[in-house]
Here is the input.
Amino acid sequence: MSANCTKQLVMEQCHDGPAAEVVRGHQRMRRINLTAISSIGFRGAMLLSAFLYIPATIRYLGPERYGLWVAMTSVITLLSFADCGLGFSLMNDVAYSIGRGIDDSVRGAVSSTFFALAGIGAAGCLLFAAAYAFIPWRTVFHATSALEGKEAAQATAVIVAGFLLTLPFTTVQRMQAAHQEGYKTQGWEIGGVMLSLVGLLAAIRMQAGLPALAIAFSSGPLIAMVLNWIVYFRISRPWQAPRLRLFEFRLARRIAGEGWYFFILQIAGIALFSIDSFVILHYFGQSAFGKYSLVVKLFQVIPALAAVWMGALWPAYAEAIARGDRRWVHRTLVRSVLAAAVGSGVVSCGVAVFSRPVVRLWTGTEVNPTASLLVALVLYSVILVGTNAVSAYLSGCNFIRGQALLVAGQVALSTVLKILFCKRGDIAGAIWGTNLGYLLITIPAYGIIVPRLTGRSQQKRTRACVS
Here is the structure.
């Protein structure tokens, strides 16, 4: 885009008036709500699917082979990081391009990312094929016989190959998120879950082996994603379809560089909450950890529900910031943080009061959480949901490297604190370590970073309008 065209676009954004910004704000909120509601529907479909297929799978395989099945299918969770953060980087890049009205940039970004992911998928398949014969599958899955080990290896190969080969097609999900059309992604994913359920139940009815069950279970979401890609790039927006001639190594390298920080942020975030399991098991044993985890699971529902809105806010922030809708960004940020903190505080207090009878009704297990643990979990819920609301804004600002560094520092500090507190004999120390990590590192840093970013955004817009 020429300098004159860019200046004209900026001038249009500066002078389209507050009324137009209000209209765009209403449209964003409508799309955000649609995406959030459809995300809840997707999670409901997953719960329904699990409610139906888990008993059927246990009856068919038996308890021991079902454990093998769970171990195999857990590979899918590990593969979720295979794109190395390129998808989130693409989403941010496209959302900014949409806000600035630069369609050529969108085509270049999606083409470069698509073929970069195709390369990663192909390389991953080759590496897995080379390593396949050297992996002690029977030992990895603790299989009771050579036949079980062979079946587990074949099933895992099917899952890994299917995921890696369809890796470039994940670009459609990030494109839809960038266009604030996440509800379309969720609709396709609901279809994939249902297809997976039907396929798995049919395979069980035909008394198929583990590899066939793996194909039936993993193929549903992958088929739905590929169909979504075809509809999006061949029917809805064919002008944005990836083209090899539009691939730019420099652009792919920039997106990959940004994606690396997304990858670090994801890994660090998972590590922050996974460390609790190892620390508590070490100091208190399996029985105490089992009861602790039941109480913690009750408090995880609130952040999970809030996350569906925060995830939808992220690309909306990016587009609004690029367009210069500063009022909407500031108002939405303040409201989302307040609503997140207050709402999670009220609900988590109720969860704390009724945690004992709920766990007993839910599992038949008697738990006796200490006051220290319940207070820590209430505070944890408020802090986590509130900081996630801020994190959505920072991600929309493309402040990813800074977030990755903050989370890495928080993981280091929280880990030390968890160990020190649990050594003293208080199981609640695991959560208090997390809370103090937020209170000592993340929240003070956000208090400095957010005002600077909002002030910088206003200065850029003022300079653009004056010039």
Residues 249-323 form the longest helix (75 residues). Confidence is low (pLDDT under 50) at residues 1-15, 461-467.
